[in-house]
Every structure is written in C-alpha cells, then in structure tokens.
Design brief:
Helices cover 30% and strands 24% of the residues. The protein is of the alpha/beta class. Helix 4 runs parallel beside helix 5 and helix 8 packs parallel to helix 10. It has a ten-stranded mixed β-sheet with strand order 7-1-2-8-9-10-11-12-13-14. The protein has two domains: 240 residues, Alpha-Beta Barrel (TIM Barrel), CATH 3.20.20; 54 residues, Alpha-Beta Plaits (2-Layer Sandwich). The site of one iron/sulfur cluster has 12 residues, from helix 1.
Amino acid sequence: MNGIITEIQHASVHDGPGLRSVVFLKGCQMRCFWCHNPETISASPQLFFDESKCMGCGRCLGFCEAHKLSNGRHRIERAFCTSCFRCVETCFTGALSVCGRVVSVDEVMRDLAEDIPFYGESGGGVTVSGGEPGCQSDFTAEILHRCHKMKIHAALETNLAYSRAILEKLVAGCDLVMADLKHIDSQKHRAGTGHGNEQVLENLRSLTVPLILRTPIVPGFNDDAGTIRRIAEFAVKLDTLQYYELLTYHPLGCGKAERLGMEERAKPQASPTINTTDYLIKAASETGVPLFLNGRRIVK
Ligand code: SF4
Ligand code: SF4
C-alpha cells in the first residue's frame, strides 16, 4: 500500500513522549490560515524553490515558461508550472526540489525500524502526522497497526474532522491521539479553518485511547480568555484526556509557503505576546484541567 509523505523526521522531541520518528503525510481537508506546515496541505507533489541556493546559472530556463531570469534574479511563474519536475534534475545547487514523494508502507517501516533502539530508552515511538493523516486513512492505519504489532508506541496527530468509521480504523492501532481543537465556536472554527467543529467535538467525546488535546493560539482568532476557558472546560470532561496544551503560533511556516509559491500564506501573523499567553494560562488553569504550554507542564 502506498501513500504520499513530505518526510520522515527522526529524533523529534515535539510530537509526543520521548524521542520519536515522525511520518509527515501530505494532504489536509482543513485550510487553517496560520498553518505551520503549508507543504502538507496539498496532497500532490509540489515544486519547491529555495532562492537562497540559486546561482542564477540559467540551466533550468529552457524547460518551460515558468522559469524567468531578470536582473540576475530567478523567479518562478507558478501559473505555467505543470509539475513535471524535469527542471529539478538539472539544478545542481538544490535550489529546485520536489516536495512530496510516494512511498509504500514497507519502505516507511524499514526506515522506522532503524530508530527502534532509541524508542525504548526514551519512552518514545512513532507519530503519524501531517497534513491530516485521516486523509490517507488506510495508509495511516496500516503504519499504526504495524507499529502496534511490533510493540512500538504509536501516536496520531490529527484534526479529527472525519467520520466515526475513519476514526475507529485509525485508533485501532493507536496508543495516543494528539488532537487539535482550534475553536469552540463552530462558526469561528469554520472561518479560521474552512470546517465547522461538530465532527471534531463528537470524535473527541467518543475517543477510547489516551488523548492530548491542543489549541494553537492564534492572535485575533482564538486568543481570548473566554474561548480558551470554554475549550478547557470541554477538555476537562473528556474521559481519556491526559492534558490540555496551548501551542503559541510561530511564523516558521511562512518561509516554506514562499518557497512553494503560496504567496497568500507567506505573510506572518502576529505572535501571541507574553501577557496574552499569561492570561490564557490563567483562564485554562481555573477549570482544573492539567495544562501544558509549548511542551512544558504548567504548575499551579
Ligand atoms: S516542474 Fe516542469 S513545468 Fe514546473 S517549472 Fe519545472 S520544468 Fe516547468
Ligand atoms: S538551475 Fe537551479 S541554480 Fe540554476 S538558475 Fe535554475 S534554479 Fe537557479
């Protein structure tokens, strides 16, 4: 069985407990305007152009009309690109590359197997992330299932915006779900992500595996005490909740968006201030929910 991924990251400390290997899948049904991983939104391979590596040699110019060189500066006119990727092979500096590759579950498992010694010692394992792994549910379920069979701790990072049938298929081989609830108000959730939150809330209530619930704090979208308190009140009632985590927005996705020609995502949002973060921590803590901020436990 095949799927499309951007990469397998090794020794990550940000995507679940211990040292983890993280499989980043391509394709997502949401369109969060602040997305930290814009390279995973499209389910297709994309041309990635890193201008800082371009020597202006002009070797790629002959391939198609998308490549333009003026005043020593190379630009790509995306409207002309048909994603044939012939130009990538001619670029010897690595300025042009393909983001996304099709791999089989066997290939993924061979890669993950090399990290097994690290998992045990650190209490880590494998995390399937994205993009949205639920968009490639058979591929994701097979990876999780094989990890589970090999006694590797298997975690899923997900937005939970899919049917109960898909959820059941995914959690069958899963030791931990790390899910986002981006807004408690469905209309605002839709305005920020393109999807209402009804399915997300229903799936959260029905989870039977340990859960870490997270909210990315995005100024102007959900950075008010009332919203965070309501999410924390919802979280504290969930049967399998381990803790609730606030993740502050960072603009690291913008550079990647620019290199992919996603101009509309290349402009950074404002980051939350320390003051804002402090009052959101206070609002969430008052509900009694076990709380983390950016990977650190908040001690009351
Ligand atoms: S991927 Fe193909 S169509 Fe796109 S810029 Fe390169 S040569 Fe042109
Ligand atoms: S082949 Fe690579 S280095 Fe040369 S102009 Fe094209 S992108 Fe730049």
